[in-house]
Amino acid sequence: MAGRPLPRFPEPDTQAFWDATKEHKLTYQVCAKGHIVFFARAHCPTCGSREMTVKESKGEGTVYSYSVVRLNRHPAFAALGPYAVAYVDLDEGFRVLTNLAGLADPVNEAKIGARVKVRWEDQEGGLSLPMFAPA
Amino acid sequence: MVSQKRDAAIVGIYEYPKRKAPGVTALQIKAECAARALEDAGLSWGDVDGLYDAQDGAGSAGLGLAEYFGFKPNVIDTTQVGGSSYEFHAAHARRDIAAGKCKVALLTYGSTAHSDARRIGTGGGGGGGYSPGSSSPLSNMTDPWGMTLISNYGMVASRHMYQYGTTSEQLAHISVATRAHAMRNPEAVQAMKDLEFVGINEITVQDVLSSRMVADPLHLLECCMVSDGGGAVVIASPEVARNCKKKPVWIIGSGEATRYSENGSDITISAAAQSGPPAFGEAGITPAEIDIAMIYDSFTITVLVMLEDLGFCKKGEGGAFVGGERLHYKSPLKPVLNTDGGGLSSNHPGMRGIFLLLEAARQLRGESTSQVEGAKLAVAHGNGGMLATSHTGGTIILARD
To answer: pLDDT grade, residue B400 (50/70/90)?
Structure first.
């Protein structure tokens, strides 16, 4: 799926997250007081702690919401046909923006509340995008 | 009503009449609107001592805009919070005037979004905010997913339907009401002609449902236009306001808020839930007393969520609330919605917030093309950013003299 806009670096906050995707690891952070943090930052947005620990998610969660895009003039997305943009709530307690994968007909098959599991889509240059397919 | 403070009033307004303005710059639109709003107030170019700007004039904000206009203001405020910038500016202008920092505040907006063929709703990776030039933590987390601006709002609509049983039929009533108002507004009718709308007429719920799906569950007729345009608002102290040409429209309450997606957060709740209560509290009124609701209609779902969050109905009951003819200007029930035709059918060059103030002021002066007899109180609620990810809400309560 070459041609999607990809993360650009240097960008120190999100570099480690995207590096981990090269090994198909979906990571989130926990601060010293136990607050769960996503997207990755050098501080905790709940308490300001700067003691951040990186953890690996099992990659299982639930679709919180979605919308099927019928029109995107960007060539990489226009080529996809209808595709679902979604928020997925991971079981560890963090929410990611993502795409739903593994649906032949996203208009009729995408469902809020559906159980999903991470499916990696490798990109040119080594990064991989964590998408979510039916569990 | 006795406790209401009347520290500042809207005394001059102007909406740029064209929605397709090739060969004109945003700065030129801003300057022309400034001059005409000052004329409307009966004030002079040299009276302006407060400049409020959302950084929309091609690299000119603050110093640059002051020089371009030819002002030497005592106050410069360049708050940029997208479509809600002008509600924030009105709140700040009132505060600055009350503090004696300025007497005549000027808010201007100019945009050539249509002529630039900007793909605000349907382009890029991460929605309207995608910019090839720079990266940030947010852009790095959103760009790969192809989340168009419309699909961002689509996610809010999907979740609202899931949680509350809201339907597309209910949302469509918002498009129907704003189009009915647009058909009464000659500038809106011309806008639809210039932007080559298919079918420039009143529409039905079925028309909305039959229009093509852009990003589920939002149909084409639930999405705003992308126009050129602009406007200006002059806000003045009570002393200045007393000597202006038109009756003042008083700013009696304001609220500002930010909201963004967080782990476990409810995306059907907008920043209006935080900005509304202080605004109504300061005004000393309840939502039930509002005659005119000027609510940011980038999409139908935006209006539905904000009517709920501002307290016009309970959370989750917006679908039933907007049904029937309730929002139409002839409705016996309060409030009526977006009597200029809204962003859906009159004017949306990207940051619509200024038009909410303009039409609210027209109603409270008795100058609207869909005038509500005896309108006394209005709310203008602007939304900036994107509802499902990060956004701002600015609430302004206005009262007739």
So the answer is: very high
